[in-house]
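Protocol step 4 of 5: obtain the predicted structure for the target chain.
Materials: sequence only (see below). No template structures provided, no constraints applied. The aim of this step is simply to have a reference model before the mutagenesis design in step 5. Sequence pasted as it appears in the construct record:
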Amino acid sequence: MFNHALSEFLDPGNPLGAVTYAIVFILLAILAGRVVNILARHSQSHLSDLTALRFVTQLLRVLIYLLAFIVYSRMIPQLKELGTTLLTGVSVAGVVIGIAAQSTLSNLVAGFSLVMYRPFHVGDEVQLTTPKGLTTGTVTNLSLGYTMLHDKDGEEVIVPNSVMSSNVVILTRARGAKAAGSRIIQAVDRDRSGGGSAGSGA
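Step 4 output (structure tokens):
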């Protein structure tokens, strides 16, 4: 009796086993995500620049959940068969999803560019044009899709990474600097500038 019940729990081919494995994989993904957060917090005290750390931390958490889902779907026969059936329409679905998520993917790619070229860092004070007009704010976070700023009125300004990477941004004060002259940077629009970011002292 006990062995039969145990085999039901451990058999991914029946509903009870599928639910059991789903719970296990969710818990493992949550645990792995927390481990990544703990390691990131411990690393903060040893790093002077947190821009890349925060971006990579979020990316790792997304990859952990994605990997857990892929492994889980390969273990469950019903999901594996469903995935094989859907392969015939994956090209059309990929095009549709790509068009629908064009803005999201653009922000993600721009985020990689901002981390790679680092035209500004977390803690820098920048100035750029927003729907409110010319806005000056301090960079507080660089996520997978957006750059967060705090302006001088205490409001949070959320700017898509694609905007930060393709528009002219004025770096008014670098992190840790008490005073600095303004410097205009073309964030990471390398295609137009021929591979270099424009910078001029003011």
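Step 4 remarks: The longest strand covers residues 133-142. Confidence is low (pLDDT under 50) at residues 178-182, 186-202.
Proceed to step 5.
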